[in-house]
Amino acid sequence: MQAEIITIGDEILIGQIVDSNSAFIAKQLNKIGVSVYQITSVQDDKAHILKSLKEAEDNADVIILTGGLGPTKDDITKNTLAEYFNDTLVPDTSVLENIQELWKKYIKQELSQVNIDQALVPSKAQVLMNRFGSAPGMWFEKDSKVFISLPGVPFEMKALIENEVIPKLQKQYKLPFILHKTLLTYGHGESKISERIEVWEDNLPKFMKFAYLPSLGRVRLRLSAKANDKEMVVAEMEKQIALLLPQIQDIFVGFEEDHSIEAIIGKRLTELGKTLATAESCTGGKIAEQITAISGASTYFKGSIVSYSMQSKIEVLKIDASIIDKYSVVSTQVAEAMAKQAQKLFKADYAIATTGNAGPTKGDDNAEVGTVCIALATPKGVFSEEYHLGNHRTKVINKAVNKAFELLQKEILKY
Amino acid sequence: MQAEIITIGDEILIGQIVDSNSAFIAKQLNKIGVSVYQITSVQDDKAHILKSLKEAEDNADVIILTGGLGPTKDDITKNTLAEYFNDTLVPDTSVLENIQELWKKYIKQELSQVNIDQALVPSKAQVLMNRFGSAPGMWFEKDSKVFISLPGVPFEMKALIENEVIPKLQKQYKLPFILHKTLLTYGHGESKISERIEVWEDNLPKFMKFAYLPSLGRVRLRLSAKANDKEMVVAEMEKQIALLLPQIQDIFVGFEEDHSIEAIIGKRLTELGKTLATAESCTGGKIAEQITAISGASTYFKGSIVSYSMQSKIEVLKIDASIIDKYSVVSTQVAEAMAKQAQKLFKADYAIATTGNAGPTKGDDNAEVGTVCIALATPKGVFSEEYHLGNHRTKVINKAVNKAFELLQKEILKY
Q1: Chain B nearest C-alpha distance from A284 (Å)
Q2: Which of A3, A190, B180, B216 is the most buried (most CB within 10 A)?
Q3: What are the backbone dihedrals phi and psi of residue B8, each rounded to the nearest 5 degrees, phi first?
Q4: Is residue B57 less than 8 Å (CB to CB) from chain A?
């Protein structure tokens, strides 16, 4: 079973939005054993959509489209699908009722004609009801192929994928088993790792694939397997991981899969019954933001002080001004003082602190762009590291966030 | 001039990463008058890459590839390109020197054979020197078409696009002029807006396109024009905007283009010489993080207290506990107290505060999931709003951040 994803919208082709829908859909399809052959982003243009549909039909068994289902003139996906399937649009009562209900509950205005028209659906389509919006999902079958059209609004699309598309595909097809394992490593580059594990990699069975995913100071190693026999896949995956792990023991952090490092940390802190706070300067709140993006974070996260100005380091975070004078604001000493203060003020077991210069220009401190000091206060004391993370603002901030999470994870894995 | 972008990597097709490279490239190409016809993401698979190259050659004048240039076995783009152009790989001295220099400066280890091999380049390629990494960019010409292969690591790719690809394309081709204007609106849905401006939209000249981009409580309206005559395009754009604006005056916030609302706010605060602080509960630091992602934010941003626990609201932010008892933690009164405290502690002119329940479950407060109270303290006083932002955690957080920026922007635009 192969799928192709087609995302439709001029906003993608002019770079105004990043298409995150296709990554979500690809992940969900992979989980149920459907490989994605290709992702294609095309304009809101009839001829182009028709051409992509034809090509996708040649390549794939399941074709999923997102976008172009809105009520406005630039949205032409529904009419184009009707043309592709030699079909006409007919009113669908259940869709109209859903729209009326949404309007009554949330919009509280009279339905306009363009919204009533959203209840027009090609007669050959099965409706996938969109509980969060007015554009219905649609499921077409042609010969042995399935075409699924979904709205481009991410949360509407996600709900339809999870509640309608995935269960329906699983019901309709006997699917192979796909398994991915991703190992988080840090400390070595991909070439260094590849040399070390070359023999292992060369001896992988044909149904397994291995990839290196370097990103800002870490390399993720992804091992994928796909076959009909689930038990065999699981056993072989275990075997290969067992062979690999001893060779990368010094750089291995944990398994990733669906879990980000923030989620792994959150789970561990919850198990330990410990709490966390942060004091952030150059990372500007991004560590706190990533922690609190995980639901349930209030169990272990107490809070953060983002001390972006000198005054706030002294008056809000209450760092001793003499430490700043003596060592300068970007220093391991100040980072440690920040971490200890965050730990104290928030009554937390652990506290992370960052201070540095993300660039693009030197700040008051005159520290080189890319210099970041990160400290971790633990129940047993405080320690810190100084890093040099390059000269690109976004990169420096993101690398610093990653480094901070690594320091913390290494520490809490000890217990 | 049409371009096609091909992003290569299994990690995209299994949904492990979101392809943000193509949006960046598309934006840069559009700026210089090159339209992107299609974006195609394909696997690290020789046959598939060859097929995509052929198709892209049929559709586009410029084909830009990213990914698959690393030193490891899963990276096959360079060999595949050599095959496509009936070419062989030869060592390139300047690339090898660049790699040696990077290793000496940053890696501080001996060069391994796989990295030395990265200096092998197809003989027909012009090298685009990658100052940030070991994989060189490559520029091929075939008949009147250009093929450009770039590394997939975002900051390496970005530097090559900005410093090498764009200048070289501009030098080599006479390019048409493309202009986009994006108007930020809030308060109405896309169908409501489209009804109101239907006549205007129907009368747009053929070389202009109009699109609605709804997102979490706002609709962005994008008007695009493309023609050889730059002056005509600029004049017509001005004329059409002048016709449109009076029809949407009550919902128009500002122009977007390359500027996010955070950047617009930062610019305005800098002009006014005013400063900002935040006190964040349910948004968990995301407002601070988005503000500090803008370089130069230290001019106007003082800091933030992320008070994710009740204790931290009382002890760190120093909210009067009786206000929380009386009105509950998710209330406009508590939001206003938080904003006033942030304003005071950080000695800021403006302070934004958020308190709410992002879900997925009800918290201590028992507030409905999606209830968010946002307050803004200004030099003249404090005010607040209560919102109901749905039942999806990420959506609630992001909508709350957007609402907070809207409140602030409306306020500072008054002066």
Answers
A1: 5
A2: A3
A3: -115, 130
A4: no
